Amino acid sequence: MMIYRYLLAVAARWERLRSTIERRTGRGTEQGVGQGSEYGGSTVEWVVIAAVVFLLAVAVGAKITGVVNEHLAKIK
User: Full-prediction pTM beyond 0.70?
Assistant: First the structure.
């Protein structure tokens, strides 16, 4: 339960920081539809990059687990 509170606090701080940066750089909602579309594209790019990194981490983890299990079977 404690970790959920910590994650919620981190998310709230992140959102506050993001909104402050948007206000100071002029990327807020007051810009209009056409100018804000680049910001959304950047978000999609980061989501894709994060998904690729996650899948690579899962693949490496599976490979390491397979090698460890193979060597463990040889020891027994």
Answer: no
